[in-house]
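Contributing new records

If you add data, match the layout below exactly. Sequence lines come first and carry their own label; structure lines follow with theirs. Keep one chain per record. Anything else will be rejected by the validation script.
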Amino acid sequence: MGDIVVRPYEGAADLRRMQEVVRATWTPSTRPHIGGLAWSRFQHVGREAEWPTALWERDGDTLAWGWAMPPGELEMFVHPERPELADEVLGWFHGVATGDEPGVTVLESEERLAAVLSGHGYRREPADAPFLLRMSRDLRDLPEPEVPPGFVVRHVRGEEDVPERVAAHRSAFAPSSVTEESYRNVMGAWPYRRELDCVVEAPDGRAVSYCLIWPDDANGVGEVEPVGTHPDFRRRGLARAACLYALHRLRETGAAGAIVHPRGDAGHPAPARLYEALGFRAHDRTVRYSRPR
């Protein structure tokens, strides 16, 4: 058996390697999902140089990876059979982080990783700091989507829908750096499927609400990421309809469940309320650990 090799990220093929090790070891307590990784990497263009990323490999198998985002946030994954590599990933991160207070976000249930972070001088941030919930739902007993008269819910058909799909996202998350170019990259990423990229179309033909779900066929769990509604069309049940339509399509793929990661702190309560109304239940939350340089 060969030595472990650490090498820099070299392109989309390496993202697939990062996704594959996540998929191969995924459990309900695994923080990354293959879909969230694709969305995060491809929703913007021109940022690769800002994201130092490294892979730890042995004999072609990826055992760990680290993805540093400016000024000093680390997304990391370590194979559960190689927990000692967490120290190496953190050591690498400390060499590339540029901020005054590097941080790592983990799930509250990731006690082993939290202990490693504490050993490197990281401290858990206050309880009132922003955090994300881990919410899940099985796909039994899904209500049918309902939209107001004149509205239509459907999935993205292809290239012809890109301008409206991007406009819907940019209106929901203004200001947004998502562009038609970046969204084409999203659509070309694994495991994107247009049947799970769903929109609500207004009577004038505009896409005004949407839900994208990323499937993981091996584990039977899709990740909802992202969901949004144009500000002029909120409070009409459109996001609910888009999500339900997408969840029905996810179930048709053979999936048994879905997960989502909305804000959970008091400063941003609306998304969690939407997912609770859709039958999602919270069973974990994120915690950020940071340390001064």
